[in-house]
Amino acid sequence: MSENRELSTALPVAPTRGRLRPLGLDEVRITGGFWARRRHVNATATLEHCRDWMERTGWTGNFRAVAEGRIERDRRGREFADSEIYKLLEAMAWQTGTGTGTGTGTETLLDADIAALTEAVASAQQPDGYLNTAFGNPGQQPRYSDLEWGHELYCYGFLIQAGIAQARTRGEGELTKIALRAADHICATFGRNGIEGVCGHAEIETALVELARLTGEERYLDQAALFIERRGQGTLADGEFGRAYHQDDLPVREATVLRGHAVRALYLASGAVDVAVETGDEELLAAVERQWEAAVARRTYLTGGMGSHHRDEAFGDDFVLPPDRAYSETCAGVASVQLSWRLLLATGDPRYADLAERTLFNVVATSPAEDGRSFFYANTLHRRHRGAVPAADEVSPRAESSLRAPWFAVSCCPTNVARTLAQLPAYLATADDHGIQLHQYADAEISTTLTGGHGVALAVRTDYPSGGDVSIRVDRSPQDHPWTLSLRVPAWTRGATAYLVDPDGTCRTVPPGTADITRLFRPGDEIRLELPVKPRWIAPDPRIDAVRGTAAVQRGPLVYCAESVDLPAGRDVDAVRVDPSAEPEDGPEGSVVAPGELAGQDGPGDSVWPYLPLDRTTVIAAERTEIVLVPYNSWANRGPSTMRVWLPTTET
Amino acid sequence: MSENRELSTALPVAPTRGRLRPLGLDEVRITGGFWARRRHVNATATLEHCRDWMERTGWTGNFRAVAEGRIERDRRGREFADSEIYKLLEAMAWQTGTGTGTGTGTETLLDADIAALTEAVASAQQPDGYLNTAFGNPGQQPRYSDLEWGHELYCYGFLIQAGIAQARTRGEGELTKIALRAADHICATFGRNGIEGVCGHAEIETALVELARLTGEERYLDQAALFIERRGQGTLADGEFGRAYHQDDLPVREATVLRGHAVRALYLASGAVDVAVETGDEELLAAVERQWEAAVARRTYLTGGMGSHHRDEAFGDDFVLPPDRAYSETCAGVASVQLSWRLLLATGDPRYADLAERTLFNVVATSPAEDGRSFFYANTLHRRHRGAVPAADEVSPRAESSLRAPWFAVSCCPTNVARTLAQLPAYLATADDHGIQLHQYADAEISTTLTGGHGVALAVRTDYPSGGDVSIRVDRSPQDHPWTLSLRVPAWTRGATAYLVDPDGTCRTVPPGTADITRLFRPGDEIRLELPVKPRWIAPDPRIDAVRGTAAVQRGPLVYCAESVDLPAGRDVDAVRVDPSAEPEDGPEGSVVAPGELAGQDGPGDSVWPYLPLDRTTVIAAERTEIVLVPYNSWANRGPSTMRVWLPTTET
Fold first, then answer.
1. CB distance from B171 to chain A under 8 Å?
2. Candidates A302, A491, A548; nearest CB to B550
3. What is the mean pLDDT of the segment spanning A349-377?
């Protein structure tokens, strides 16, 4: 690791040291393509949508109810509802800092929204910094009387992150001040001589480290480190889901795999990386790397989704990854990207960017509908019922609607997607003493100053992930200082061939990992990365019981699925069989066409019993056909449908 | 259907009409073999075990607490705890009527137990017949104020069945009188002019029909028919599990498949068959047959187990039968046997006896431990964790213990197994105008009078299910009246060959279904049925996602499983792969030895990501070995272990 000098001030994650230096929102702009479209919808629809729903459900009103002394009677929403306002504020703040792409009018409106919401939040803060609408006000349960489920520290975490976003975009403002008062209150209350406890839902840890990075105040870092060390000491009551649910079963540095509630586990791991980096704690960092590696190798869905338990929203056992029971909470996807990003910055290992890419395209991008006004909370990999479109004006149960819903009683996901999309440009590229690293591919303009004061500017052009060609044009480069451009060659290219063409037109194959070009670049130089985005069959590890005998299709970073709207009328995806002995091909409009068959509607006709001697099994009649597959992140945008990612093969 | 004349008085189910006439406990005795051993353990250990636990947990004491006016303060157990005392009473009553096989001493003790428990129960009955320790007493919720969850009518159902068991074994006694008073109270309260409701948990229906059969009183049948017709009219509140949970989504005669809470669904269907038979309602009978057929073809585990949802203990969707999530509640197995038996009596179709056999050997027989003092509540088909033996003196959660537990907070299963084993001889054979039908094979003595007053006695000798040879010796037969002996040729013989050898030594092959011999039998005649019990590979229907690419072994009616105690130290069953291209063979002590391999402990070594392009997958190293399999009903009797029924094949 090295010290990060000349850090941008517009960074969601700004470590003081690490293998790579992040580039800020002032250094990277997304200018077109897949993520620009998603960010545009986010800025112009989702932010407003979230604001209106929280007004309507009364969650915003909670703050005013505290100020007016009527919270006991009037409180609305779950105990963690405050956090949604904070996450929305954070999203709005990052959005003001990155340009909405819709003209300054929207930004002015966002500034006004931030001011109004901030005023409401401020009105509920107590003189000592305590701020929560569910606890600690007249007529309510006392402060910190339910650390297991109360989510007070969890809420502060998002408040602090919102305050940081404001400071790093518009400059320190009222929201930042509220956050600082809350943080000081936390240090006073939960410090070494304070309450010997942690929050049932990790999140405060990473926020406090970031606040230390913003302010340079060591005490915030110390408090975060203390929370990390206290976790796993059994300070939380052992509840119905067991101690692992809160990651309170083992100290962070002793655990070998991510476990328990997935979002909690991933926020905690992110905080642990932050603490490890800032304190130089190599052991702690190694522990999280080990946990990440084990979770990715054994507890992660093809989409990057994490969590296979509905009941406790938790990681399942190794290789227990049923597609029809995939919980794969959107927030776990967001949290996984946060963790991967922190590990990437600390270590430079491209496998973290690989997982971030997979998760962004197949979990984070799957959650919002095309119009940005409804969301998946859970991202299943197999849906057997068409279901109905949730009513546009009703709150839905969180993981049971078969289609995207406008809002949930527990609505953590929409605002989490919103803040991720708002800060997304910051996850594209980094720099180090040798040059610039591109981790994610999108149309972008990148401009930064390399070590030694050398200004560099790049323009990236690509239609990734539809196409695999990425062109990087050098717009500015020092005249006499060679440097290295490092390009991630995604792990998904394994077994296919990627090419790198240097400015001279020399072409070489590049294996998965990182491809470097070191030279004296000149303005106008073009580097081309050609990634093989042909659709390919993917086979699951044979230890995953739930998808044995199936295959999936991936094309570039995109996971594909069969959706019933593409089948003959009245047929469902469970009739689909694919034939992996032939190759899938590109179809129209981003689809893939795979060889396969559609099984008849009747099973083996001569038995009412579905288990037969092996030598007596009869084959269900099937009709050879081409199976249309669509990107998983686009499913359920054409009305109710059934869907599956893993498709039984004709061989089994 | 024909009228049942000359019915035994010692029958758990005594329809006045039907295709077959059941033989009573005075007509059929089990004299040895598998079920005799199980019944011996039941009589000498399980009954006492249940009695002691209910004394210890205070459930028995509830009745005395009502009588003494202190129930509000002192009540123990869940709202349906009364029913467990009734089921135990029923089990004890049938046991006194069938001989314990342990000398008359035990029977005398049982009579004393019945008298003592009956006295307690009687003390709690109100003057108008109302009887419940959870409702309707001073300080408690009013009677019938919670039909959805209160289980009052459910409890009466078991009380009535206990009263019937007493009447049909020792003769009408105090327990019968309590039951009659309760039944009259029900008719007065829930009749056409009474409460327009049904119980959230079906059970009362079948009990009232049986009481009508016992007493000849039509009003009990009318009340049962009324409850059947009211079901599906939405009289119960729609709760978190939906209306199908209580089978209140559709009228019984309109439903096409069993659905919702499995035990509720099966008790209800049993009651519907009873009503249909007694009222000659062919439409209703056909509806239940259709539901049974659909449930068996699409919603039943290889073991005969029903129910794949843990949360609501319910049937899953068609073909959603995950082995690791199999709920397969023991009580659902008991209820399924009850339903199959009623359908068999009504129709004579041997497929009902096929399912009953499968369920008895693989669910009902699996629940109790060898010593009869601990039980499975849920009967999973795949256990990944060894778990720990539950403490012998503690109540366990119902479906979460990995091993059999002595007692549960919801402890419906132990007493349900006990009453089933106690009445088991009544499920072996029937008669009709043509002769005698054997449905289940066990060492038994059968003696009855055929239509026309012809006395017949048979002695069955077999070591079924270990061996497949069944010898039936005619001990008594009319000198001048030919009759038909019908033998069920189990559906599991499909694809193998069964032989029937008549008294002359003539041998013929017999296909699955029913094999008849009609002749003038003479005492000393021996008929032999030779069933092919060689172990065989079984393949699942390709529509069952969760077990694609696996095979199981069945030998005769017994399902087998791999258990980790039979693997090298430290290895778990998930490492087992079997090779169905070679045949499994009989091993020592009832085991089966199957060709296969044991996968290495490490996966594909060159990737931390478990999904690879199909042409790049690496094979996990495996060591060829013989895999020992044991009967599923015997698993978890050798300490903590992992277990699986469906074993991945080496091909996938």
1. no
2. A548
3. 97
**Residues A636 and A643 sit within 8 Å (Cβ to Cβ):** yes
In sequence order, what E strands does A189-249 have?
none
What mean pLDDT is reported for chain A?
A: 94
How many other CB atoms are found less than 10 A from the CB of residue B207? 31
**Residue with tokens 């509630």, as numbered in its chain:** A261
B324, B543, B611: best to mutate for the A interface, most A CBs within 10 A: B611
Q: Is B553 on the interface with A (CB under 8 A)?
A: no
| A609 contact B CB<8A | yes
Residue of B630, B633, B631, B607 lying closest to B620 (CA atoms): B607
Flag if B652 and A549 touch (Cβ within 8 Å): yes
Inspect the interface and report whether the beta carbons of A614 and B536 lie closer than 8 Å. Answer: yes
Q: Cα angle at A575 between A569 and A581, to 5 degrees?
A: 120
Yes or no, beta carbons of B652 and A324 under 8 Å apart: no
Average pLDDT of the segment spanning B435-448:
98
Of B544, B545, B603, the CB nearest to A541: B603
Q: Show residues of chain A in contact with B302, CB under 8 Å.
A: 611
Q: Please write the tens of the pLDDT for every residue from A157-183.
A: 999 999 999 999 999 999 999 999 999
Partners of residue A599 in chain B, C-beta under 8 Å? 542-543
Distance CA A483, CA A467 (A): 28
Q: How far does Cα A438 stand from its chain's mean position?
A: 19
Arithmetic mean of pLDDT over chain B: 94
Q: Where are the beta strands (DSSP E) in B451-557?
A: 454-462, 469-476, 483-489, 498-501, 507-510, 513-519, 526-530, 535-540, 550-555
Residue range B503-533, pLDDT digits in tens: 999 999 999 999 999 999 999 999 999 999 9
| pLDDT tens readout for residues A381-429 | 999 999 888 888 888 887 666 789 999 999 999 999 999 999 999 999 9
Q: Is B168 on the interface with A (CB under 8 A)?
A: no
Query: Residues A57-85: what's their mean pLDDT?
Result: 97
Taking only the tens place, the pLDDT of each residue in A124-134 is: 999 999 999 99
How distant, in Å, are the alpha carbons of A152, A307, A441, B327, B421 from that of B400? 32, 20, 47, 10, 25
Q: Would you state the structure tokens that stand for residue A474, as one six-digit string? A: 């050098």
pLDDT at B604 over 60: no
User: Which one of A317, A491, A609 has the shortest CB-CB distance to B297?
Assistant: A609
pTM of the predicted protein model? 0.94
List, in sequence order, every beta strand (DSSP E) within B138-285.
none
What Rg, from alpha-carbon coordinates, does chain B have? 25
CA dihedral A575, A587, A401, A361 (to 10 degrees): 130
B223: left (phi over 0), alpha (psi -120 to 50) or beta: alpha
Specify the pLDDT at position B540: 95
Give ipTM to 2 decimals: 0.92
The residues in B 454-513 lying below 8 A from A, measured between CB atoms, are: 491, 494-496
- DSSP, residue by residue, A500-542: EE-TT--EEEE-SEEEEEEE---TT-EEEEE----EEEEEE-T
Among A7, A24, A101, A99, CA closest to A446:
A24
By CB atoms closer than 10 A (0-12, 13-18, 19+), residue B313 is buried
Q: Is the pLDDT of residue A52 over 70?
A: yes
Q: State pLDDT tens for residues A504-534.
A: 999 999 999 999 999 999 999 999 999 999 9
Nearest to A539 among B311, B495, B614 (CB): B614
CB-based contact, B616 to chain A, within 8 Å: yes
Number of residues that this document lists for chain B: 652
Q: Does A551 reach chain B within 8 Å, measured CB to CB? A: yes
Q: How many CB atoms lie within 10 A of CB B511?
A: 11
From A554, which residue of chain B is nearest by alpha-carbon distance? Answer: B613
The pLDDT assigned to B101 comes to: 47
